[in-house]
Design goal:
single chain, alpha/beta, seven-stranded mixed beta sheet, three-stranded antiparallel beta sheet, 12 strands
Length: 387
Protein backbone atom coordinates (compact mmCIF):
# COMPACT_ATOMS: atom_id res chain seq x y z
CA UNK A 1 0.00 0.00 0.00
CA UNK A 2 1.32 3.43 -0.92
CA UNK A 3 2.16 5.50 2.13
CA UNK A 4 0.27 8.78 2.44
CA UNK A 5 2.67 11.65 3.03
CA UNK A 6 1.92 14.27 5.67
CA UNK A 7 1.44 17.79 4.35
CA UNK A 8 1.38 21.28 5.80
CA UNK A 9 -2.30 21.66 5.00
CA UNK A 10 -4.52 23.36 7.58
CA UNK A 11 -8.00 21.90 7.67
CA UNK A 12 -10.66 24.13 9.24
CA UNK A 13 -13.79 22.74 7.58
CA UNK A 14 -14.75 20.09 10.12
CA UNK A 15 -18.47 20.89 9.97
CA UNK A 16 -18.37 19.63 6.39
CA UNK A 17 -16.51 16.44 7.28
CA UNK A 18 -13.76 15.25 9.59
CA UNK A 19 -10.67 13.16 9.02
CA UNK A 20 -11.37 9.57 10.14
CA UNK A 21 -9.49 8.73 13.33
CA UNK A 22 -7.10 5.74 13.37
CA UNK A 23 -9.38 3.75 15.67
CA UNK A 24 -12.36 4.11 13.31
CA UNK A 25 -10.23 3.20 10.30
CA UNK A 26 -8.98 0.11 12.14
CA UNK A 27 -12.54 -0.92 12.99
CA UNK A 28 -13.64 -0.61 9.35
CA UNK A 29 -10.53 -2.45 8.20
CA UNK A 30 -11.21 -5.30 10.63
CA UNK A 31 -14.78 -5.67 9.37
CA UNK A 32 -13.67 -5.80 5.73
CA UNK A 33 -10.78 -8.21 6.25
CA UNK A 34 -11.98 -10.43 9.09
CA UNK A 35 -15.68 -10.02 9.86
CA UNK A 36 -16.89 -9.59 6.28
CA UNK A 37 -19.89 -11.91 6.45
CA UNK A 38 -23.45 -10.72 5.84
CA UNK A 39 -24.91 -9.83 9.27
CA UNK A 40 -28.25 -11.31 8.19
CA UNK A 41 -26.77 -14.75 7.48
CA UNK A 42 -27.40 -17.36 10.18
CA UNK A 43 -24.07 -19.17 9.91
CA UNK A 44 -21.00 -18.44 12.02
CA UNK A 45 -19.55 -15.90 9.58
CA UNK A 46 -22.79 -13.95 9.60
CA UNK A 47 -23.17 -14.22 13.35
CA UNK A 48 -19.76 -12.71 14.06
CA UNK A 49 -20.56 -9.76 11.77
CA UNK A 50 -23.95 -9.35 13.45
CA UNK A 51 -22.25 -9.20 16.85
CA UNK A 52 -20.03 -6.36 15.66
CA UNK A 53 -23.14 -4.48 14.52
CA UNK A 54 -24.72 -5.02 17.92
CA UNK A 55 -21.58 -3.62 19.55
CA UNK A 56 -21.73 -0.53 17.33
CA UNK A 57 -25.44 -0.06 18.00
CA UNK A 58 -24.80 -0.23 21.73
CA UNK A 59 -21.97 2.32 21.45
CA UNK A 60 -24.18 4.83 19.61
CA UNK A 61 -27.02 4.16 22.05
CA UNK A 62 -24.77 4.79 25.06
CA UNK A 63 -23.54 8.01 23.44
CA UNK A 64 -27.16 9.19 23.15
CA UNK A 65 -28.40 7.77 26.49
CA UNK A 66 -30.78 5.61 24.47
CA UNK A 67 -31.60 1.91 24.35
CA UNK A 68 -29.91 -0.10 21.57
CA UNK A 69 -33.28 -1.07 20.08
CA UNK A 70 -34.05 2.64 19.61
CA UNK A 71 -31.07 3.13 17.25
CA UNK A 72 -31.51 2.54 13.51
CA UNK A 73 -28.53 2.81 11.19
CA UNK A 74 -28.81 4.76 7.94
CA UNK A 75 -26.46 5.94 5.20
CA UNK A 76 -26.02 9.30 6.94
CA UNK A 77 -27.77 12.35 8.34
CA UNK A 78 -29.64 13.18 5.14
CA UNK A 79 -31.35 9.80 4.95
CA UNK A 80 -32.13 9.85 8.68
CA UNK A 81 -33.70 13.31 8.36
CA UNK A 82 -35.79 12.18 5.41
CA UNK A 83 -37.04 9.10 7.27
CA UNK A 84 -37.95 11.28 10.24
CA UNK A 85 -39.70 14.06 8.33
CA UNK A 86 -41.65 11.96 5.85
CA UNK A 87 -42.35 9.21 8.36
CA UNK A 88 -43.74 11.62 10.94
CA UNK A 89 -45.92 13.34 8.35
CA UNK A 90 -47.28 10.01 7.11
CA UNK A 91 -48.09 8.82 10.62
CA UNK A 92 -49.85 12.03 11.67
CA UNK A 93 -51.45 12.96 8.35
CA UNK A 94 -54.97 12.60 9.75
CA UNK A 95 -54.23 14.43 12.99
CA UNK A 96 -53.51 17.84 11.47
CA UNK A 97 -51.63 19.64 8.74
CA UNK A 98 -49.14 22.06 10.31
CA UNK A 99 -45.39 21.47 10.30
CA UNK A 100 -43.15 23.85 12.26
CA UNK A 101 -39.47 24.19 11.42
CA UNK A 102 -36.89 26.95 11.03
CA UNK A 103 -35.52 28.77 8.00
CA UNK A 104 -31.97 27.65 8.88
CA UNK A 105 -32.34 23.86 8.89
CA UNK A 106 -30.16 21.55 6.84
CA UNK A 107 -31.34 21.17 3.25
CA UNK A 108 -32.37 17.57 3.89
CA UNK A 109 -35.06 18.92 6.24
CA UNK A 110 -35.97 22.04 4.28
CA UNK A 111 -36.32 20.18 0.99
CA UNK A 112 -38.38 17.52 2.72
CA UNK A 113 -40.87 19.95 4.26
CA UNK A 114 -41.04 21.82 0.94
CA UNK A 115 -42.18 18.59 -0.71
CA UNK A 116 -44.76 18.08 2.04
CA UNK A 117 -45.94 21.65 1.55
CA UNK A 118 -46.59 20.85 -2.11
CA UNK A 119 -48.65 17.88 -0.92
CA UNK A 120 -50.91 20.21 1.06
CA UNK A 121 -49.28 20.52 4.47
CA UNK A 122 -48.95 23.97 6.05
CA UNK A 123 -45.30 24.73 6.79
CA UNK A 124 -44.26 27.42 9.28
CA UNK A 125 -40.60 28.40 8.94
CA UNK A 126 -39.34 30.36 11.94
CA UNK A 127 -36.95 33.15 10.99
CA UNK A 128 -33.84 33.72 13.13
CA UNK A 129 -32.43 36.99 14.33
CA UNK A 130 -29.25 38.37 12.78
CA UNK A 131 -27.08 35.82 14.62
CA UNK A 132 -29.15 32.70 14.08
CA UNK A 133 -31.18 32.65 17.29
CA UNK A 134 -34.70 31.23 17.44
CA UNK A 135 -36.70 32.14 20.56
CA UNK A 136 -39.09 29.97 22.58
CA UNK A 137 -41.70 32.70 22.07
CA UNK A 138 -41.55 32.16 18.30
CA UNK A 139 -42.07 28.45 18.81
CA UNK A 140 -45.02 29.01 21.17
CA UNK A 141 -46.73 31.26 18.63
CA UNK A 142 -46.23 28.75 15.83
CA UNK A 143 -47.16 25.43 17.48
CA UNK A 144 -50.94 25.02 17.69
CA UNK A 145 -53.36 22.13 18.01
CA UNK A 146 -53.14 21.46 14.26
CA UNK A 147 -49.37 20.85 14.45
CA UNK A 148 -48.26 17.31 13.62
CA UNK A 149 -44.47 17.75 13.37
CA UNK A 150 -41.87 20.07 14.84
CA UNK A 151 -38.40 19.61 13.34
CA UNK A 152 -35.52 21.74 14.62
CA UNK A 153 -31.74 21.32 14.66
CA UNK A 154 -29.81 21.58 17.91
CA UNK A 155 -26.81 23.44 16.46
CA UNK A 156 -26.83 25.36 13.21
CA UNK A 157 -24.18 24.07 10.84
CA UNK A 158 -23.16 27.46 9.42
CA UNK A 159 -23.09 29.95 12.29
CA UNK A 160 -23.10 27.60 15.29
CA UNK A 161 -26.15 29.04 17.03
CA UNK A 162 -27.71 26.70 19.57
CA UNK A 163 -31.46 26.34 19.15
CA UNK A 164 -33.90 25.92 22.09
CA UNK A 165 -34.91 22.34 21.33
CA UNK A 166 -35.80 21.42 24.92
CA UNK A 167 -38.13 24.43 25.03
CA UNK A 168 -39.61 23.35 21.70
CA UNK A 169 -40.34 19.90 23.12
CA UNK A 170 -42.06 21.32 26.21
CA UNK A 171 -44.14 23.75 24.16
CA UNK A 172 -45.13 21.06 21.69
CA UNK A 173 -46.19 18.64 24.42
CA UNK A 174 -48.45 21.37 25.81
CA UNK A 175 -49.85 22.90 22.62
CA UNK A 176 -49.93 19.82 20.35
CA UNK A 177 -49.69 16.60 22.39
CA UNK A 178 -50.00 14.36 19.33
CA UNK A 179 -47.21 16.10 17.39
CA UNK A 180 -43.89 14.38 16.77
CA UNK A 181 -40.68 16.29 17.59
CA UNK A 182 -37.57 15.64 15.51
CA UNK A 183 -34.13 17.07 16.24
CA UNK A 184 -31.20 17.10 13.83
CA UNK A 185 -28.24 16.71 16.19
CA UNK A 186 -25.61 16.15 13.50
CA UNK A 187 -23.52 19.19 14.45
CA UNK A 188 -24.02 18.75 18.21
CA UNK A 189 -23.20 15.04 18.48
CA UNK A 190 -19.74 14.48 19.93
CA UNK A 191 -19.38 18.16 20.85
CA UNK A 192 -22.19 18.68 23.32
CA UNK A 193 -23.74 16.04 25.59
CA UNK A 194 -26.82 14.77 23.73
CA UNK A 195 -29.16 12.77 25.95
CA UNK A 196 -32.37 11.80 24.21
CA UNK A 197 -33.99 11.32 27.62
CA UNK A 198 -33.17 14.88 28.68
CA UNK A 199 -33.92 16.32 25.25
CA UNK A 200 -37.31 14.63 25.07
CA UNK A 201 -37.51 14.52 21.26
CA UNK A 202 -39.17 11.56 19.54
CA UNK A 203 -36.63 11.35 16.72
CA UNK A 204 -32.96 12.38 16.72
CA UNK A 205 -30.51 12.35 13.80
CA UNK A 206 -26.74 11.83 14.08
CA UNK A 207 -24.00 11.24 11.51
CA UNK A 208 -20.68 9.38 11.45
CA UNK A 209 -18.44 11.57 9.32
CA UNK A 210 -18.80 14.59 11.60
CA UNK A 211 -17.14 12.70 14.48
CA UNK A 212 -14.06 11.26 12.73
CA UNK A 213 -15.67 8.17 11.24
CA UNK A 214 -15.97 7.46 7.49
CA UNK A 215 -18.74 8.86 5.33
CA UNK A 216 -21.72 6.66 4.55
CA UNK A 217 -23.16 5.91 7.99
CA UNK A 218 -25.57 7.68 10.30
CA UNK A 219 -28.31 6.82 12.72
CA UNK A 220 -31.84 7.78 13.65
CA UNK A 221 -32.97 7.48 17.25
CA UNK A 222 -36.65 6.53 17.34
CA UNK A 223 -38.34 6.63 20.71
CA UNK A 224 -39.53 3.25 21.91
CA UNK A 225 -43.26 2.91 21.17
CA UNK A 226 -43.28 5.41 18.31
CA UNK A 227 -44.34 3.69 15.10
CA UNK A 228 -43.70 5.54 11.87
CA UNK A 229 -43.69 3.96 8.41
CA UNK A 230 -40.37 3.26 6.67
CA UNK A 231 -39.40 5.07 3.49
CA UNK A 232 -38.14 1.92 1.79
CA UNK A 233 -39.10 -1.73 1.82
CA UNK A 234 -37.48 -4.98 0.86
CA UNK A 235 -35.83 -6.62 3.84
CA UNK A 236 -35.89 -7.20 7.58
CA UNK A 237 -32.69 -5.35 8.43
CA UNK A 238 -32.95 -2.68 11.12
CA UNK A 239 -36.22 -4.26 12.28
CA UNK A 240 -37.65 -3.63 8.76
CA UNK A 241 -37.50 0.12 9.48
CA UNK A 242 -34.52 0.73 7.22
CA UNK A 243 -34.16 -2.40 5.04
CA UNK A 244 -31.10 -3.29 3.00
CA UNK A 245 -27.81 -4.97 3.82
CA UNK A 246 -26.04 -2.88 6.44
CA UNK A 247 -22.76 -1.13 5.61
CA UNK A 248 -21.08 -3.10 8.38
CA UNK A 249 -17.53 -1.65 8.07
CA UNK A 250 -18.83 1.92 8.19
CA UNK A 251 -21.19 1.18 11.06
CA UNK A 252 -18.43 -0.50 13.09
CA UNK A 253 -16.24 2.56 12.53
CA UNK A 254 -19.17 4.79 13.55
CA UNK A 255 -19.59 2.92 16.82
CA UNK A 256 -15.90 3.18 17.59
CA UNK A 257 -15.79 6.91 16.83
CA UNK A 258 -18.95 7.55 18.85
CA UNK A 259 -17.46 5.90 21.93
CA UNK A 260 -14.39 8.14 21.64
CA UNK A 261 -16.16 11.39 20.74
CA UNK A 262 -18.89 11.06 23.35
CA UNK A 263 -16.74 10.05 26.30
CA UNK A 264 -17.86 12.72 28.76
CA UNK A 265 -14.44 13.57 30.20
CA UNK A 266 -12.83 13.75 26.77
CA UNK A 267 -15.70 15.78 25.33
CA UNK A 268 -15.56 18.29 28.18
CA UNK A 269 -11.79 18.77 27.91
CA UNK A 270 -11.99 19.11 24.15
CA UNK A 271 -14.81 21.66 24.43
CA UNK A 272 -12.77 23.83 26.77
CA UNK A 273 -9.78 23.73 24.45
CA UNK A 274 -11.90 24.52 21.39
CA UNK A 275 -13.55 27.37 23.27
CA UNK A 276 -10.12 28.88 23.94
CA UNK A 277 -9.26 28.44 20.27
CA UNK A 278 -12.51 30.08 19.22
CA UNK A 279 -11.91 33.06 21.51
CA UNK A 280 -8.38 33.40 20.17
CA UNK A 281 -9.69 33.39 16.57
CA UNK A 282 -12.38 35.97 17.29
CA UNK A 283 -9.87 38.23 19.07
CA UNK A 284 -7.53 38.05 16.08
CA UNK A 285 -10.33 38.61 13.56
CA UNK A 286 -11.53 41.73 15.36
CA UNK A 287 -8.10 43.27 14.87
CA UNK A 288 -8.58 43.18 11.10
CA UNK A 289 -10.39 46.30 9.95
CA UNK A 290 -13.89 45.75 8.60
CA UNK A 291 -14.39 42.12 9.62
CA UNK A 292 -17.81 41.24 11.06
CA UNK A 293 -18.41 38.17 13.25
CA UNK A 294 -21.70 36.54 12.23
CA UNK A 295 -21.74 33.79 14.89
CA UNK A 296 -23.31 34.76 18.23
CA UNK A 297 -21.26 34.91 21.41
CA UNK A 298 -23.14 31.90 22.79
CA UNK A 299 -22.62 29.76 19.69
CA UNK A 300 -21.08 26.33 19.76
CA UNK A 301 -17.38 27.27 19.79
CA UNK A 302 -16.55 24.70 17.12
CA UNK A 303 -18.06 27.03 14.47
CA UNK A 304 -17.10 30.64 13.74
CA UNK A 305 -18.69 32.48 10.83
CA UNK A 306 -17.30 35.85 9.79
CA UNK A 307 -17.41 38.26 6.85
CA UNK A 308 -14.57 40.31 5.43
CA UNK A 309 -17.13 42.64 3.76
CA UNK A 310 -14.51 43.38 1.08
CA UNK A 311 -13.75 40.12 -0.72
CA UNK A 312 -16.36 37.70 -2.00
CA UNK A 313 -16.37 34.37 -0.21
CA UNK A 314 -15.58 32.29 -3.30
CA UNK A 315 -12.59 34.46 -4.12
CA UNK A 316 -11.25 34.27 -0.56
CA UNK A 317 -11.83 30.50 -0.39
CA UNK A 318 -9.74 30.01 -3.53
CA UNK A 319 -7.02 32.29 -2.18
CA UNK A 320 -6.86 30.34 1.08
CA UNK A 321 -7.04 26.97 -0.66
CA UNK A 322 -4.01 27.82 -2.79
CA UNK A 323 -2.15 28.26 0.49
CA UNK A 324 -3.32 24.93 1.84
CA UNK A 325 -5.90 26.41 4.23
CA UNK A 326 -9.37 24.91 3.95
CA UNK A 327 -12.50 26.66 5.20
CA UNK A 328 -15.94 27.04 3.61
CA UNK A 329 -18.47 29.61 2.55
CA UNK A 330 -21.35 27.67 4.12
CA UNK A 331 -22.72 24.16 4.07
CA UNK A 332 -20.83 21.75 1.83
CA UNK A 333 -24.22 20.42 0.65
CA UNK A 334 -24.90 23.77 -1.07
CA UNK A 335 -22.00 23.18 -3.50
CA UNK A 336 -21.25 26.88 -3.91
CA UNK A 337 -24.85 28.07 -4.07
CA UNK A 338 -25.80 31.10 -1.92
CA UNK A 339 -26.33 30.01 1.68
CA UNK A 340 -29.98 29.96 2.78
CA UNK A 341 -28.75 30.36 6.36
CA UNK A 342 -26.82 33.55 5.63
CA UNK A 343 -29.80 34.85 3.65
CA UNK A 344 -32.09 34.18 6.61
CA UNK A 345 -29.86 36.28 8.90
CA UNK A 346 -30.69 39.32 6.76
CA UNK A 347 -27.12 40.61 6.74
CA UNK A 348 -25.88 43.41 4.52
CA UNK A 349 -25.06 42.44 0.94
CA UNK A 350 -21.35 42.89 1.60
CA UNK A 351 -21.47 40.66 4.67
CA UNK A 352 -23.59 38.00 2.94
CA UNK A 353 -21.37 37.84 -0.13
CA UNK A 354 -18.18 37.49 1.93
CA UNK A 355 -19.27 35.09 4.70
CA UNK A 356 -16.69 32.45 5.65
CA UNK A 357 -17.17 29.50 8.02
CA UNK A 358 -14.32 28.17 10.13
CA UNK A 359 -15.08 24.89 11.91
CA UNK A 360 -12.69 23.30 14.37
CA UNK A 361 -11.97 19.80 15.59
CA UNK A 362 -9.81 18.55 18.44
CA UNK A 363 -6.74 18.36 16.17
CA UNK A 364 -6.63 22.10 15.45
CA UNK A 365 -4.15 24.43 17.17
CA UNK A 366 -3.48 28.11 17.74
CA UNK A 367 -0.83 27.85 15.01
CA UNK A 368 -3.63 26.96 12.58
CA UNK A 369 -5.47 30.11 13.64
CA UNK A 370 -2.34 32.24 13.22
CA UNK A 371 -1.84 30.91 9.70
CA UNK A 372 -5.49 31.55 8.82
CA UNK A 373 -5.42 35.11 10.18
CA UNK A 374 -2.26 35.94 8.23
CA UNK A 375 -3.72 34.46 5.05
CA UNK A 376 -7.04 36.31 5.45
CA UNK A 377 -5.21 39.60 5.99
CA UNK A 378 -3.05 38.92 2.93
CA UNK A 379 -6.14 38.04 0.94
CA UNK A 380 -7.89 41.26 1.85
CA UNK A 381 -4.82 43.30 0.94
CA UNK A 382 -4.41 41.49 -2.37
CA UNK A 383 -8.02 41.06 -3.45
CA UNK A 384 -10.16 43.80 -1.93
CA UNK A 385 -9.90 46.07 -4.97
CA UNK A 386 -11.20 43.26 -7.20
CA UNK A 387 -14.53 42.85 -5.42
Amino acid sequence: MEEIQETNEIYLDNSATTKPCPEAVAAADEMMLRFWGNPSSTHAKGNEAAKKLRDARKAVAVALSAAPEEIFFTSGGTEANNIAVFGAAAKNRRAGSRIVTTAIEHSSVLDGVRELEQQGFEVIRLTPDSQGHISPEQIARAVNSDTILVTMMMVNNEVGSILPVESAVRITRKNAPKAIVHCDCVQAFGKLPVSVRKLGADLVTVSAHKIHAPKGAGALYKRRGLNIPPLTRGGHQEDSFRPGTEAAPLIAAFGTAAAIACDRAGMSARYERINELRNYLVMKLRKIDGIVINSPNDALPYIVNFSTCRVKAETMLNFLSERGIYVSGGSACAKGEPSHVIKALNLSREASDSAIRVSFCGNNTSADVDALIQAVADGINSLAHFR
